[in-house]
Structure to design on (761 residues):
């Protein structure tokens, strides 16, 4: 794998391969010594133009457990805040010998620009770009679902035939955008659920159905309900009247939780607004995978860094 | 080359006939077969198409204020390389062209260049701020004779201010050239709103934001009996509204850019900011509709919206990049590819939409008649059978933000005459001192 920019260009086989390597990585994490020598001598730069402690430390843990050297570059207080361009930052990292750059950027497409620019030779991992994609989140989500469904015999399998309801602010969600392509590649069906203002108008050709009615979606018995974080500032842009109305119509409250099939999984990429898009009881229930998602995130990112940095490079 | 007489031998005219064209002291003195050279410099034009010098109603020359992108000299060189002999300079310079003094300064910079006539456009509102009218009358009576006013880059979105502007310019046969973009519907917009923008996670610029303003403006124009020009029409819905307005007899004219005739929004998939422009590249259906609108006369002209930017404003993430593309050097070839090679229009229509009609809309005195005896000797010789890989060497301005780099485009400008002075010969720009000397000689004799 040369770069990981988007899940849209992952084939079913490539996706399953990453998930299988993530299984191998997860297994090493149950050993007493969890550190592998695999990426010794490689340098991974976490280039974060947006604050995201959770994602950054997950990548940092993944790289360190593979024995890579990790450099954290945060835009705040750096040359970037003094107006340095992406181009100059990239060329600086190139000169310092970065083998992989994990980039989080507020501008959609910034990882593509970096990968296509010729400014830097390193492998690029998209750790979330604007409202575009967040591919490692989708990989860890698929990994989590697959483990819940198939347990120890997950290897080699897809997510065929299951239905995943993604609920909330689809319009601005890079998590939803990465999940829809990966779920489709793995054979799952996606339903986008939310207020019409927060579900994109133009979805022609997308492997997703749309519903504005969470109760109807729950009645159709989905295998997974993935709740997305609602930014309260969306309210000021007239996307919905107020948090109370949002929670009433599109929140996973206790009453809706009770109506889910017993084996339906509840997911959330975090950080959660308890009481808004998800109730505490839903978040903490045994069907919730919120904490597994965090642990699996490290395994999935280890797999991505491993595939990017070890073995033959395909240019 | 100090001779001011030229005989273009054996050129093909836009109607398909063959003729010699005689140029003396900046004017066309003869069109016919077997003309005598009378000591003129003979230019072999056999097999070349002769068109009236192209007129661009929508050029950003960037000077004063943004000389790292373009100057009047480099912009008019780009114009000459593309076969243009007159460019209308948009007002969004710094300072903004909103007073008589500033439009006269722009005019003078054009005269000093000599590569093309620069006709300033005045701002509608002071500083393009959209708050109060600029001194439209003073600009109209200045030496620059401004008849077209535009806040291009910004929409005159306040309906009352737009009404007043349309009314006021009636006093001197002016027109308002509107950049139709409802600002509230395009907050943070990055590209055409559609499936591609949804997939790329880029904030959409919906077609309705253009169409709503055009609909409002044609109604205002009808109400006050004035004249409206719509800049860079980009959507199928806009074409429908303008078609309806013209059928009602409303005095509206419209332009489309070359890039909206050829390119579509899926080019953004590369996140290559050379394809970022405002209004954005639209869908294939929109491209089809603006082509049909140009072919049936709903859209009157092609105008380039030539918008130079230095590398650092394009060499970055898409949302951080500037809007705009250079277009003067490629315009004729793009119209050739999108409209002529597709059989939608003839070369005589090209002469209309790229020269005669824009001169008339801009009220250029004594121009807009095409190649006729007695008219100013603005002529372009174009090799319709050539084809070229369009590259940076095809550009003559200061900036290289062309969306066509690496594409194959038909045709090639072989020669351009501006006021009877060659600015391009054998496909190459003539040196500045020679052009200046030629223009001085013409002015002295004229």
């Amino acid at each position: 794998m040369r770069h990981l920019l988007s899940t849209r260009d992952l084939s079913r086989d490539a996706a399953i391969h990453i998930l299988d390597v993530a299984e191998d990585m997860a297994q090493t994490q149950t050993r007493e010594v969890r550190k592998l020598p695999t990426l010794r001598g490689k340098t991974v730069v976490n280039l974060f133009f947006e604050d995201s402690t959770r994602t950054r430390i997950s990548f940092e843990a993944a790289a360190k457990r593979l024995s890579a050297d990790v450099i954290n570059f945060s835009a705040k207080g750096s040359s970037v805040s003094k107006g340095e361009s992406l181009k100059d930052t990239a060329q600086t990292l190139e000169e310092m010998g970065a083998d992989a750059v994990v980039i989080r950027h507020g501008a959609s497409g910034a990882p593509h620009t970096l990968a296509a620019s010729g400014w830097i030779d390193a492998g690029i991992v998209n750790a979330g770009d604007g409202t575009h994609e967040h591919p490692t989140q989708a990989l860890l989500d698929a990994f989590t679902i697959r483990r819940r469904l198939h347990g120890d015999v997950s290897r080699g399998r897809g997510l065929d035939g299951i239905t995943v309801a993604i609920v909330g602010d689809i319009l601005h969600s890079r998590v939803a955008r990465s999940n829809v392509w990966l779920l489709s590649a793995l054979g799952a069906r996606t339903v986008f659920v939310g207020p019409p203002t927060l579900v994109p108008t133009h979805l022609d050709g997308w492997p997703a159905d749309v519903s504005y009615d969470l109760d109807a979606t729950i009645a159709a018995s989905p295998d997974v309900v993935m709740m997305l974080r609602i930014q309260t500032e969306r309210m000021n842009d007239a996307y919905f009247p107020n948090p109370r109305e949002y929670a009433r119509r599109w929140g996973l409250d206790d009453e809706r939780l009770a109506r889910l099939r017993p084996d339906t999984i509840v997911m959330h990429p975090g950080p959660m607004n308890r009481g808004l898009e998800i109730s505490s009881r839903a978040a903490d229930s045994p069907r919730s995978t919120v904490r597994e998602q965090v642990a699996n995130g490290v395994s999935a990112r280890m797999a991505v860094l491993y595939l990017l940095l070890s073995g033959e490079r395909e240019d | 080359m100090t001779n001011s007489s030229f005989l273009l031998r054996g050129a093909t005219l836009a109607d398909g006939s063959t003729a010699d064209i005689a140029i003396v002291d900046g004017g066309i003195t003869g069109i016919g077969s077997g003309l005598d050279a009378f000591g003129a410099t003979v230019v072999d034009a056999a097999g070349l198409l002769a068109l009236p010098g192209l007129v661009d109603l929508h050029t950003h020359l960037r000077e004063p204020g943004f000389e790292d992108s373009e100057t009047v000299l480099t912009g008019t060189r780009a114009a000459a390389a593309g076969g243009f002999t007159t460019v209308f300079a948009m007002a969004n310079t710094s300072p903004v062209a909103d007073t008589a003094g500033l439009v006269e300064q722009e005019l003078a910079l054009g005269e000093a260049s000599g590569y093309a006539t620069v006709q300033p456009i005045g701002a509608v509102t002071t500083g393009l701020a959209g708050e109060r009218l600029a001194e439209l009358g003073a600009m109209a009576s200045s030496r620059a004779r401004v008849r077209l006013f535009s806040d291009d880059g910004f929409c005159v979105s306040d309906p009352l201010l737009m009404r007043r502007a349309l009314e006021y310019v009636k006093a001197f046969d002016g027109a308002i050239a509107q950049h139709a973009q409802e600002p509230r519907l395009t907050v943070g917009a990055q590209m055409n709103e559609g499936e591609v923008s949804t997939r790329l996670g880029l904030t959409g610029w919906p077609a309705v934001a253009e169409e709503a303003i055009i609909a409002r403006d044609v109604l205002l124009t009808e109400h006050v009996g004035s004249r409206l020009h719509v800049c860079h029409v980009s959507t199928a819905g806009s074409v429908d509204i303008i078609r309806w307005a013209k059928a009602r007899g409303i005095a509206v004219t419209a332009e489309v850019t070359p890039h909206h005739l050829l390119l579509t929004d899926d080019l953004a998939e590369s996140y290559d900011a050379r394809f970022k422009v405002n209004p954005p590249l639209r869908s294939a259906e929109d491209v089809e509709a603006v082509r049909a609108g140009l072919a049936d006369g709903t859209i009157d002209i092609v105008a380039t919206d030539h918008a130079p930017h230095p590398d650092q404003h394009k060499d970055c993430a898409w949302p951080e990049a500037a809007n705009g593309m250079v277009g003067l050097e490629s315009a004729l070839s793009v119209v050739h590819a999108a409209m002529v090679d597709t059989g939608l229009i003839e070369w005589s229509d090209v002469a209309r939409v790229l020269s005669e009609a824009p001169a008339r809309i801009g009220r250029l005195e004594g121009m807009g008649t095409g190649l006729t005896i007695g008219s100013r000797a603005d002529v372009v010789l174009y090799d319709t059978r050539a084809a070229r890989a369009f590259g940076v060497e095809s550009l003559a301005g200061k900036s290289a933000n062309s969306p066509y780099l690496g594409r194959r485009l038909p045709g090639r400008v072989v020669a351009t005459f501006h006021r009877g002075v060659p600015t391009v010969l054998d496909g190459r720009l003539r040196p500045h001192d020679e052009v200046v000397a030629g223009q001085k000689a013409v002015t002295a004799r004229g």
In short: Chain A touches chain B through 28 residues (CB under 8 Å). The beta strands of chain A are 43-48, 69-74, 100-105, 123-129, 163-167, 189-193, 208-211, 224-227, 265-267.
